Amino acid sequence: MARPTGRVFVARAQVMDADEVTRALRRIAHEVIERNHGLAQVVVIGLQTGGVPLAERLVSVLKEIEGVEVPLGTLDVAFYRDDIGLRPVVPEEVTSIPVDLTGATVILVDDVLFTGRTVRAALDALADYGRARAVQLAVMVDRGHRELPIRPDYVGKNLPTRRDEVVDVTSEGVNIGELVAERSQ
Amino acid sequence: MTMTSEFTGADPAPAAARESGVRHLISVADLDREAMLGIFHLADAFKEVAERPIPRVPALRGKTVATLFFEPSTRTRLSFEAAAKRLSADVMSFSASTSSLEKGESLRDTIETIDAMGVDAMVVRHKSSGVPSQVRAWTKASVVNGGDGQHEHPTQALLDCYTIREALADRVPAGGAGPEDLRGLRIAIVGDVRHSRVARSDVLAMTALGAEVVLVGPRTLLPPSLEGWPVKATADLDDVMGSLDVIYLLRIQKERAQAALLPSLEEYHRRFGLTRERAAHLDPRVLVMHPGPMNRGVEIAPEAAELPSSLITRQVRNGVLIRMAVLFHLLGAGGPLPVAPGHSDSGPAGEGRSEVGHPGEGRFDVSGSEPGQTGAGPEAGGASDA
Q1: Is the pTM of this model over 0.90?
Q2: N or C terminus of chain A with fewer C-beta within 10 Å?
Q3: Given this model, what pLDDT does residue B2 score?
Q4: Which domains are assigned to chain B?
Q5: Cβ–Cβ of A166/B356 closer than 8 Å?
Q6: Does domain A18-156 have CATH number 3.40.50.2020?
Q7: CA angle B282, B286, B289 (to 5 degrees)
Q8: Which B positions 203-232 lie with beta carbon below 8 A of chain A?
Q9: Largest Cα–Cα distance of chain B, in whole Å?
Q10: Can you give the pLDDT at residue B21?
């Protein structure tokens, strides 16, 4: 049986360390507050799964700065993807959007912005939860190679990449590398 | 009646079906424990969808699901159609009484005609065991068994197990995790087990998920042999009542009494029904289930169906979620999946975030694993744990 073998990420270079990620998050938090003249009606939504820890951290930084706890949601876009049937598409987690988004300013948070297809799916999904007044996009890394007319509002770092490279964001920092086939036998 | 025995064994087709990339659900045996947990995980995600103001996702847009019911059914058919519509699939509906079957068209010609119209999945119900399995040979579509003769009714078994698991999770204090499977539970399936496709599928699913199953009924309605079935059987309901976690009542078909398999419906009710007296003495933690439609006063007293521990309406509600999960699993989640050369995260298909299989993150990795078919792979487990 041609059971597909897993592939593992092999880092080639670190492009941001943990402190740099924290600083980028703090800057993004200030930009969110500045652009929206405070945090009224702001809702932060992390994309499953890479965006969720960043969204959680953004909410706590926003609270530190403004003393306001903004609502936090998580969104899994699996059922809205345009590549269903082309590759395995399975939701990671149950979506949880605790507030009606009608009239809200949604800050969508993801770790890496690449083709833009996940964000496209997220915009469709958000529309099913109400008509947001505005949707803004915050990403830790913008690696280019967009396939759709989508741009981020807040960027941790612009990182030129090759298409076949992989960018990995964790709480320890941001690494660039490749996926390498893992031989099972 | 002897037809059932032909379809109890291993299904020869799945291997071939997997080669072609088309997936089917004919028997619970097509799914192992991990695949079932994967379907429950999907159903959990669809539960959130069902609670939204607009309970619909575009997941199967452009796909067509045909429901082919050669035998009357309301709930299973409506449940599949609701599931397909909530996934934005198009639905084609066929029923035997209004079709060219009346004019003498053969089953094969009917299937090939519908296949030629272009459908992605066929949900087939038929009074003869084995028809959905046979239909696979005549279509390129995924085939889902919507109940065949006395063989199986796999989506019913999945929704039953999912409902039990959900009811147990509700007892866990907020924040705690519910049980993953049905390990440690004792479940009685009561009634006409011998002729019941629901019982056959439930036995397979419940035992695969770790439950202990005991069959209860008059000897005439129990299977002649339990060989190969990991279950016990008894003709004394009161003997097992005290030790149960779940009592599952099967529908008694009135013609069984006419066929002299039952003395009378009244006596059946006294000996094997969940009577008012039995219901009154029932531990409130014992879950009461029924696949519907109920014969109130035969297998279940009218009051017993309204017990707080009755899951009967939940079963119906969860039926839509499970059928969404099954359709998505067959048509969307894995799809026909050649892990093509160059299939990579960075390709046009993928958004290519940091989709790396970090061990322990429970993240669905990029290897193209199919939770339904690859079985006990670590990533399948990870996905369902998530």
Answers
A1: no
A2: C
A3: 36
A4: 179-312 (3.40.50.1370)
A5: yes
A6: yes
A7: 105
A8: none
A9: 68
A10: 66
Taking only the tens place, the pLDDT of each residue in A2-60 is 334 578 899 999 999 999 999 999 999 999 999 999 999 999 999 988 999 999 999 99
B348 touches A115 (CB < 8 A): yes
Which stretch of DSSP H or E encloses residue A133?
none
Q: Find residues 339-368 of chain B whose CB sits inside 8 Å of chain A.
A: 339, 343-358, 361-368
What pLDDT, in 10s, does the model give residues A68-114? 999 999 999 999 998 887 777 788 888 999 999 999 999 999 999 99
- Domain segments of chain A as ranges: 18-156
Q: Nearest-CA distance from A115 to chain B in Å? A: 5
Which chain A residue has the Cα nearest residue B55? A128
Q: Which residue has the higher pLDDT, B16 or B221?
A: B221
CA distance B337 to chain A (A): 6
Using a CB-CB cut-off of 8 Å, the residues of chain B touching A116 are 351
Window B:103-162, CB contacts with A under 8 Å: none
Give me the residue from B87, B349, B357 closest to A87, CB to CB: B349
pLDDT tens, position by position, B328-376: 999 986 543 332 233 233 333 333 333 333 333 333 333 333 333 333 3
The whole-angstrom distance between B373's CA and the closest CA on chain A is 10
Provide the mean pLDDT of chain B: 82
Chain B from 316 to 335: CB within 8 A of any A CB: 328, 331-335
pLDDT reading at A149 higher than 70: yes
When scoring B353, B355, B385 by the number of chain A Cβ atoms within 10 A, the one with the most, hence best to mutate, is B353
Judge contact between B265 and B192, C-beta under 8 A: no
